[in-house]
Specification:
mainly beta; seven-stranded antiparallel beta sheet; eight-stranded antiparallel beta sheet; Jelly Rolls
């Protein structure tokens, strides 16, 4: 699997990006974000997302390397049905530190964060969708995958999944995505971290 697959579709293609071998390098545009309504009352669907089509059940993972510096700088993985039904998950800078962050949107967005105790500049993230359930995992080494979030997620016959990056407060976050894998759902026990 590679980020150079011909079936990838950009949503809000960044002005600056390059792809070579298994690496996608993105530099974010100014004021980019994904958010719907909750607390802030606005809708934003301007973040950068390179989506690859899936069937009704899958596991997707990728490596993310970035230099998060400014409030709300973020990068990771997105699973998307449409503008009202999606999830984004990865690292987001908040309250002066890098946080594990996920936003699950089913009409309106929520936001869940937790401190990330490893190198936020180099991490892996995994999303599994099957039978109306979303499982998010994060890894510091690509080998051990503790649970980040488990939640209901709308069932669909197909999804788009792939790398996502946003900078609501600035432009210029450089992110390298690599090691993209898209497979049938792993089907592992909830506490199996492999």
């Amino acid at each position: 699997m590679t980020l150079l697959r011909s079936d990838g579709v950009w949503l809000n293609e960044p002005k600056r990006w390059t792809a070579e071998d298994d690496r996608l390098q993105v530099v974010t545009d100014k004021g980019t974000d994904f958010w719907r309504e909750t607390h802030y009352g606005f809708y934003r669907d301007s973040g950068h997302f390179l989506g690859f089509p899936t069937g009704e059940a899958f596991t997707a993972s990728l490596r993310v390397q970035g230099d998060f510096q400014t409030l709300y700088d973020q990068a990771g993985i997105m699973v998307r049905i449409d503008a009202r039904h999606w999830v984004k998950a990865g690292i987001e800078l908040s309250d002066g530190r890098a946080m594990l962050a996920s936003v699950l949107t089913d009409g309106r967005s929520d936001w869940a964060t937790a401190p990330y105790e490893h190198d936020a500049g180099d991490f892996w993230v995994r999303a599994t969708v099957a039978d109306g359930v979303l499982r998010l995992q994060v890894s510091a080494d690509g080998k051990t995958w503790p649970l980040m979030r488990l939640a209901p997620f709308p069932a669909a016959s197909s999804y788009l999944v792939g790398p996502m990056a946003c900078t609501p407060e600035r432009a210029g976050l450089e992110v390298v995505f690599s090691n993209f894998r898209l497979t049938p759902p792993l089907g592992k026990d909830l506490h199996d971290m492999s």
